[in-house]
């Protein structure tokens, strides 16, 4: 993005909802992502996605989820021991997340590269300062350098809708 290489750890708590007429149980999700260009559009490439048990049904629709016994998402911390993530932070003031909050194309590998679109609702983004020594072994495990200073942006609440990509859909 803007000539820089960027990776992110994104943690989300889902309150539940629906997939068509089927109910979706509450669950937490942790994504390890990087940012690329696909067909001239900025896109998010999901490197790994971990979900707690309530989100495992997404596997039936081709989501590349890995089970996670624990993903804790709080106002001041994200902890996922099985994914090697432990980040504590002090929330700050309102901020512009830049391109991080605007991507509409997602990509992931599942028997080929799959592409999907995301529509997001409004969100109030806040900056945050890291507290202590953040652990990001999950990013190291996929070969990414985490030596630079972390930039943290938080959104307290929003909504999103996405399509289910067809099997084998390429960008």
Topology:
Blueprint: E1 7-14, E2 17-19, E3 22-24, E4 27-38, E5 41-51, E6 65-67, E7 72-74, E8 77-80, E9 85-94, E10 105-109, E11 113-120, E12 125-136, H1 137-141, E13 152-155, E14 160-162
Parallel strand pairs: 5-6, 5-10
Antiparallel strand pairs: 1-4, 2-3, 4-5, 7-8, 8-9, 9-12, 10-11, 11-14, 12-13
Describe the fold and architecture.
The chain has about 170 residues and is an all-beta fold. The protein has one helix at about 135-140, and strands at about 5-15, 15-20, 20-25, 25-40, 40-50, 65, 70-75, 75-80, 85-95, 105-110, 115-120, 125-135, 150-155, 160. The strands form three sheets. Strands 1, 4, 5, 6, 10, 11 and 14 form a seven-stranded mixed sheet that branches. The longest helix is centred in the last third of the chain and has 5 residues, at about 135-140. The two termini are about 20 Å apart. The mean pLDDT is about 80.
């Amino acid at each position: 993005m803007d000539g820089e290489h960027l990776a992110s750890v994104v943690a989300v708590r889902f309150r539940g909802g629906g997939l068509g007429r089927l109910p979706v149980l509450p669950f937490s999700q942790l994504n390890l992502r990087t940012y690329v260009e696909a067909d001239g559009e900025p896109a998010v490439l999901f490197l790994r996605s971990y979900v707690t048990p309530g989100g495992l049904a997404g596997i039936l629709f081709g989501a590349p989820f890995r089970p996670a016994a624990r993903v804790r998402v709080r106002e001041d911390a994200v902890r996922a021991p099985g994914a090697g993530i432990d980040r504590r932070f002090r929330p700050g003031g309102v901020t512009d997340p830049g391109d991080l909050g605007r991507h509409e194309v997602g990509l992931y590998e599942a028997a080929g590269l799959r592409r999907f679109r995301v529509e997001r609702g409004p969100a109030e983004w806040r900056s945050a300062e890291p507290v202590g020594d953040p652990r990001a072994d999950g990013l190291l495990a996929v070969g990414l350098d985490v030596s630079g200073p972390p930039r943290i942006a938080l959104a307290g609440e929003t909504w999103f809708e996405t399509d289910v990509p067809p099997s084998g859909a390429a960008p």
